Predict the structure.
Amino acid sequence: MTIAEEQVRHALEVERVESHLHPTGSFEVDDHAVPNGREEIWRFTPLKRLRGLHSDAALDGAGVGAEYDAPESVVFESLAADSALLGSSGFVPTDRIAARVWQEAGQRWAVTVPADVELDRPVFVTLTGTDLEPATATHSVITAGARSRATVVLRFVGSATLADNVEIVVGDGADLTVVSIDDWSDDAVHVGHRHAQVGRDAHFKHVDVTFGGSVVRHDSTAEYAGPGGDVEMLGLYFADAGQHIEHRLFVDHTAPKTKSHVTYKGALQGQGAHTVWIGNVLIRKVAEGIETYEENRNLVLTDGCQADSVPNLEIETGEIVGAGHASATGRFDDEQLFYLRSRGIAEDEARRLVVHGFFNDLIRRINVPELEEQLAATVEAELAKNVLQELG
């Protein structure tokens, strides 16, 4: 066994980290107490608005249907409850909702990109909600075979109460981008868990875009199955009046010479708009020579909004290339507005341009041409929901 292989073996046999940020994982629902809102991982979430997903509400609905559009080489299939693909990412539920989905999901499906295949266009999976009650639970697995190259886009639309688990397996040397877009109607509730296992010298980009829904909470986690893995997590969200959007991220550096970069940007407008971003990176003892950085930026457009942003770094070895984090929440940049207005641009238009500038660099980094124009248009539509004269 080579030194690198020995390091990976130790990485995959990591000890449990004693931290309030890392609840004990279990597939059994009863091992996870019903949250009361005082727990660290639930203290920002409006539990009363989850329609019982966190307790014992029925998850036997069929109110979310999936349709897909993919190149012929991609395999799309339904899965039995005992399929070997389930759990192939190493995912273990760390809260009651994820464990309930594991046990009770009525829909299980997989998207597989074979090894050495390079797709010439994205895979599109559209999940359309038609019923708010009873709630629906789904479990999916996205696999990119070794040395493959692919983009998978998940789009959530319509009205539903959905709890879902999405497992992602990125094979050695593969390059996979997964884009998740929550474009729900205003009454939807969505609690999602996404977990990725990234292979040796593989690259994984996860893009989380959230515009619609009453309450949307996503837990996105990543770990490494070998050295050289690279994880990029990008997020874009826009919260309106009364909307709660919560993103919780955890990158677990379980192998040496790995990288991670997290960038999330959000805007808020309207009374009661609330966003939450919790970022956490764990650098284990075995993870020598790693690089990591996480940042969150929030732009508050009106009074009555609240943006909570909490970056965390947990470091167990000092033998790293670099690690850092940043978080900022603020209103419009007065200097930018002054510059634009001094050149004859009306205030309303100037504010619109500032918001687009805030998001545009992130949209370009998504690097999915089929989505760039669409996302920019959605930002424009979100801005139109509020009277620009009342901003600031």
